[in-house]
Amino acid sequence: MTENTNVKSARILIVEDEAPIRTLISFACAAAGYEVECAEDAQKAQSVVENNPPDLVLLDYMLPGLSGVEWLERLHADPKTEHLPVIMLTARGSESDRVKGLNAGADDYIVKPFMPRELIARIQAVLRRYQHQSKNEQDSLNVEVVCGPLTMNEASFEAKVDGEALSLSAKEFKLLLVFAKNPERVYSREMLLQLVWDNAYVDERTVDVHMLRLRKQLQGTRAENLLQTVRGLGYRAHISE
Ligand code: CA
């Protein structure tokens, strides 16, 4: 499935009390390939969101009963719906409505009356942004660095050799990660101090002490010879065949 078909098969909830506008928007969304659901007030919209959450909400500002922006505040206060994408529909000239909508967490707003084409373009843009975000979140949960037999996970701070966990301090982990990310690259002690100790005043021998500890941890594993001394220069990770 391409990204485009994903975006197009999204479910849109239209919350609008004026029937002609609701019909118009509903028609435009369906014509663009979206699945459509309608609600004429916040209460009905709430039950749709609870029973069958949509991918995006088109929310009119002026609704009978709970206003669009009041309902939006409730949505965003609930952890289950705080990330639901919302585009507000606001009346022409009502700058303060737009500001209130955006402050309440709307992703975008569109001013009535609008062209269906413009509405669809806004919907697509917001959906794409969310797809991109959730992909990035997934990527950041799975940040594995592999260097020969060594595997490091930046999110969980785990380092393993052939599946066996190493027991490393935070600094040792950070130091080993520098090498794991750039095998064969030589790092001087000074570079390592900058990268791992953030320029704090630390003696260069600190690096040697930590390298010694890392090598001890790797002893007896297949990564035993991973960390090498490059005479006169510093250290590198070398993956042997
Ligand atoms: Ca209205």
From TrEMBL:
The modification 4-aspartylphosphate is found at residue 60. Pfam families: Response_reg (PF00072), Trans_reg_C (PF00486). Keywords: DNA-binding, Phosphoprotein, Transcription, Transcription regulation, Two-component regulatory system. Residues 142-239 bind DNA. GO terms for cellular component: cytosol; protein-DNA complex. Residues 142-239 form the OmpR/PhoB-type domain. GO terms for molecular function: phosphorelay response regulator activity; transcription cis-regulatory region binding. It comes from the Bacteria. GO terms for biological process: regulation of DNA-templated transcription. Residues 11-127 form the Response regulatory domain. This is Response regulator. It comes from Candidatus Aphodousia faecigallinarum.
